[in-house]
TrEMBL record:
Top-level taxonomy: Bacteria, Pseudomonadati, Pseudomonadota, Alphaproteobacteria, Acetobacterales
Cross-referenced InterPro entries: BUG, Bug_dom1
Similarity comment text for this entry: Belongs to the UPF0065 (bug) family.
Keyword Cytoplasm: no
Pfam families in the cross-refs: TctC
Span of the signal peptide: 1-23
Protein name: C4-dicarboxylate ABC transporter
Top-level taxon: Bacteria
Cited SUPFAM superfamilies: Periplasmic binding protein-like II (SSF53850)
Signal in keyword set: yes
Keywords: Signal
Amino acid sequence: MARATRRAALAAPLAALPLAVRAQSWRPAGQVRIIVPAAAGGTTDIMARLLAQFLLTRWGTPVVVENRAGGGGTIGTLEMVRARPDGTTLMLGNIGPQAIAYALFRNLPYRAEQIAPIAGTIRGPNVLVVNPNVPARTVAELAALLRARPGEIPYASTGVGQSTHLSPVLMLQLLNAQAIHVPHRGSAPAQIEILSGNVAFLIDNLTGIIGHIQAGRVRALAVTSADRHPLLPDVPAMRETMPELATYDVNTWFGLFGPAGLPPEIVTSLNAEVMALLALPDTQRRFADLGGVGMPGNAEAFAAFVRSETTKWAEVIRREGLQLDAG
C-alpha cells in the first residue's frame, strides 16, 4: 500500500465518527500541535495524523502534526519537553526515543522524568525484509551471506536508536555476524533505500511496511515477535528460523506523550480521547490491516509499561556495549 493510499484509508472514515463516547471536562483553548519525532510516512507519522483528525472532529479545534525528524527521535522529543505543559503541545512517540534512547545515548538532552506518558496507541512486531534481488529466501540464507562477507552488506534503519536499529543489532549479535548500518530519518526514506536496492535488508515496523510486502516489492523473511503474525502466516517468527535466534523476541510500540507537569485532568482527558479512538471498530480494523493491535489502558498503566521497556532495552544495550552521542 502506498503512503498516500494508507493515509487516505486512515483518515477517510473519521468524518462520520459516532458521538457516543463520553465528553471530557478539559478542552484546549486553542490550536494543538502533535510533534512527530520521525519523518513523514512511517507508523509514528500515520498514528499522529489519525489521532489529529480524530481530535479535530471531537474538539472542533485545529490539531496540526509537525514532523521533527533526526537524532533517533531525540530532536523532536526535546522540542516537546521544552514546551509549556498546557496540553497544546503533545508528541506521538515510540519505543526509540521513549525507551531505548536513555541507555543508548550518553549525553541525552532530556530525562524520563521530563516526559509524561499519556496513552498507548498501537503495537506490533517488526519484520525482516530483503530486496527481491538479494539471493536469500530464509534467515539462514541471509546469515550465510552475512558470514561470507563480514562487514560488507548494508542494511537500513529508520534512525539510530530506533527499534529498527537495535532489532538487527540484536540479530547480528546472536548470529555472530557483521553488516553495515545505514541510518535514515524515518521509515519512508529507509523503505526507499531497500526498494531501490541500495541496501540488502531492513527490519522495519510491520505496521509501516506491510503494504510493500503484500505488493511483492520486498520479501519478508521473519517477524520479530515470539509468534507468527496473522497477516503473514507463512512468514516464520525469527526465533523459529535458527537455533542461534531461539531467544529473539522484539515488538515495537507507539504512544502519546506530553511535557512533564501536565495537570492530571489534561492527562486523564487526553487518555480518554485516545481510548475512545482505540475502541472504534473501524480503528481496530485499520490497526489489523497495518499489522498491529491497540494498547488500551490508563495513563498509569502506560507509564509502567514504558518504564519496563526502558529497563529491558537498557540491559540489551549494556550487553552489546553500545553507546552513542546524541545529536
